[in-house]
Write a structure and sequence with these properties.
CATH topology of the largest domain: Na+/H+ antiporter like fold
Radius of gyration: 22 Å
Helix content: over 70%
Largest sheet: none
CATH architecture of the largest domain: Up-down Bundle
Number of strands: 0
CATH class of the largest domain: Mainly Alpha
Structural class: mainly alpha
Distance between the termini: 65 Å
Order of helices and strands: HHHHHHHHHHHHHHHHHH
Length: 428
């Protein structure tokens, strides 16, 4: 089958599973889709291994044909980030701007170093010592919280507004920071050319700052086009230019497409929509992008479950897979509680803020896409068959599944407690 045919069939399957999950009210929809897709993958995997079914080998071949990295990073990500950013309220974001900035930048760097350091120590203890640059590589790809997973789950659970905006704002901005760190460490790990401070600084300015500036420019252009639009269908179609042509041009310019989508979405949602559209038309725009967001979310979380078929669980990697979750959680805890130690000196927060930020730091397709972008054939130990990409894929997949299925299903408990505290505070 062609890639287009595979995507059509997967889209149909995603919508069918979405329909089934809508009837299961116990979990949030994206969690249910991932769980059902994982169950389907396990059934196919077990049946294929035991009975040698042709369906198993066919599915594996078809999934390998899809470029998941390109599909997510250069396709779905732009739509999902722009849709999520349209819902962000700028007045609330301004109130939490310093917290979001510190969590997105300092927190990501701190988490990368802690996770990389712990993995370096543990890999030696497991008799499979890794280069420190390889350990930092895992820290860089797993530290940014996935904006798709976070926006799909957290914003629907009704957390206190100040906590929700921190979780959402951090996840929307730290992926650009994480990608810059990931690219820089990749150059250290795989390139023969030395990496200098000036080159890293230049990379950050071009990717991160360039993405923000380009996103603002996109918003100005779209604002002018919306001003000229005279009918509902036309202005809805105009917004599609941002995550399509706008994202492609960002890639051509070498700036961060994700940050450009977030910047443009926030400006359009807070400036252009209230100024140019009638209040009755706001609902049409919201419904339009909710439809797009729901479809791509269903497809993405289905793919996350089905990617189990492409993961090679070598017996020598089980300890790394099991230890990856506590390593990442430790890194997340320190990178949240340390900044909050300073935050609480200047402002009062809900007592569950740190816990929700730690447990709500979900990972998803973004981390897997970065892991899949690593080169193959990097053998870790001479004479061994263990490949670096295979190792980091196994560890990343374990963290992603844990964060979505375990953290995603249990975080409502923390949110309920935080809401109860908010109510108690309001009482005289």
């Amino acid at each position: 089958m062609t890639s287009y045919e595979i995507l059509c069939l997967l889209s149909a399957l995603a919508l069918v599973i979405s329909l089934i999950s809508s009837r299961l009210h116990r979990w949030q929809q994206t969690i249910t889709i991932t769980a059902l897709a994982l169950c389907l993958s396990l059934v196919i995997l077990i049946a294929g291994k035991i009975f040698g079914l042709e369906l198993y080998s066919t599915l594996v071949t078809d999934l390998e044909q899809l470029d998941f990295k390109a599909l997510l990073l250069n396709g779905m990500l732009g739509f999902l980030l722009f849709a999520g950013a349209l819902q962000i309220k700028l007045n609330v974001l301004k109130q939490q701007r310093w917290e979001i900035l510190v969590l997105a930048f300092v927190g990501t760097v701190l988490s990368t170093l802690i996770i990389g350091g712990l993995l370096y120590i543990l890999s030696g203890a497991l008799d499979l010592p890794l280069k420190f640059s390889y350990c930092l590589l895992f820290g860089a790809l797993i530290s940014p919280t996935d904006p798709i997973a976070v926006l799909a789950i957290i914003k629907q659970l009704g957390a206190p507004e100040d906590i929700a905006i921190q979780v959402e704002g951090e996840s929307l901005f730290n992926d650009g920071i994480g990608l810059v760190i990931f690219v820089a460490i990749s150059q250290v790990a795989f390139s023969t050319e030395p990496l200098t401070i000036s080159s890293v600084t230049g990379l950050f300015i071009r990717e991160a700052m360039g993405g923000v500036i380009y996103g603002a420019l996109l918003a100005v252009i779209l604002h002018g086009m919306l001003h000229l639009s005279e009918e509902r269908t036309q202005y809805l179609l105009m917004t599609l230019l941002v995550p399509t042509a706008g994202y492609v041009v960002a890639d051509m310019l070498g700036v961060s497409g994700p940050l450009a989508m977030v910047t443009c979405g926030i400006i359009i949602g807070n400036v252009s929509v209230p100024k140019l559209l009638k209040e009755s038309e706001w609902g049409h725009l919201d419904s339009f992008w909710l439809l797009i967001e729901s479809f791509f979310n269903s497809l993405l979380f289905l793919l996350l479950g089905l990617l189990l078929l492409l993961i090679h669980f070598d017996a020598e990697l089980w300890w790394f897979m099991l230890l990856s979750v506590p390593i990442v959680l430790i890194g997340r805890i320190i990178s949240i509680y340390l900044p909050y130690y300073g935050f609480r000196r200047f402002r009062d927060y809900n007592s569950y803020a740190e816990k929700i930020l730690v447990w709500g730091g979900l990972r998803g397709g973004l981390a897997l896409a970065m892991a899949m972008s690593l080169p193959t054939g990097v053998i870790l130990v001479s004479g061994s068959h263990i490949d670096l990409r295979e190792l980091l894929m196994v560890m990343t997949y374990a963290v992603v599944v844990f964060s979505i299925l375990i953290q995603g299903t249990t975080i409502p408990i923390l949110i309920d407690k935080s809401n109860a505290e908010q109510v108690a505070r309001r009482k005289p």
